[in-house]
Amino acid sequence: MLRLNIAYVHNKLPYRATGFSITELLVACALSGLLISVVASYAAQSHVALSSLQHATSLEEDMRALKSTISHHLGRAGFIEEANILSPFIALSSGHSPASNVALGERSTEPLNSCITFSYDKNKDGAISQSQGELFGYRLNNKAIEYRINGNTCEQGGWFDLTDPETLSVTQFSANRIYKSSWGVAYEIKISLQSIIDTEVQSHESFIVEVPNDS
């Protein structure tokens, strides 16, 4: 009988539940929130860095394309195919064509020497022809580099965009003669680009184009 009473009393002892206390739960929630905040912040920074890298890469590709295009065409200024002379590079002002040699100018709203026009015999038929698209040029106009169409002057409209004004801003474009010799003239081209989406992304380039027999 004594043993039964002891067992009965033992079974009546209060039950102590196991698990986390309110304090422990609050601490765990705080630590989880902090961890989530750190991960989210890192993810956001990584996204911004990746986006900036993509814009920078795109801008550098645009700059390389501009440099290649301008160098290729400007370097051939004055070229006329001639079968009876040693050098096909002759001054256009020598009477072979009514076109002029390399000329510098600008629109009234743009900086000095922000437009360059020239011509060459692209199809090698021995003449400069407007109908064949052989009157070339590049200019700065309203934060974009444009290329010449139909022999228009630096002041005239009708030029086409070479750069995309929706994605990048051209903050500088200039062409200047830096020296002249018996073989021709060297021009220094300066270009500065800025991303419109991320204004911190910029690119600057200065390069020299040698034009044989430019006068």
TrEMBL record:
Q: Which InterPro entries would you find in this protein's record?
A: Prepilin_Pept-dep_B_prd
Q: Which UniProt keywords apply?
A: Membrane, Transmembrane, Transmembrane helix
Q: Has the keyword Membrane been applied to this entry?
A: yes
Kindly list the residue ranges recorded as spanning the membrane: 20-44
Record protein name field: Potassium:proton antiporter
Organism encoding this protein: Alteromonas gracilis
